[in-house]
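Sample entry (131 residues):
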Amino acid sequence: MKPALQAWVKKNQQALAKHNLYATGTTGHTLEAIFPNKVEKFISGPLGGDQQIGAKISEGDIDLLIFFWDPLAQLPHDPDIKALLRLATLWNIPVACNPASADYLISSELVNTAYEREIPDYASYIQGRTS
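Predicted structure, serialized as tokens:
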């Protein structure tokens, strides 16, 4: 889905220029070819880049996930992608999996504000696991 993501980023360059972009290695290089701002690149997704993005989500450094995927194609690192989507859901950040949902997110008035998302309190969960 890299061509679709690249087309979407090109179409939304102005809106995206106000934000820090993170990407796995290959995707980041693809986006840098058309996006004038810096893209913070991690290693390739199958080599652990998806987990690196997941870690940034759990640390509160990523507020929104745009991850286009083809539901008809098998992904070699499907467990990694499922883990990434699980973390995005766990930490209550919006996720766009296709251009239409990404359009809705980027056009929201909330995307340019200091949105205070509700972060679940996992203290009781952690307490139960350590007792």
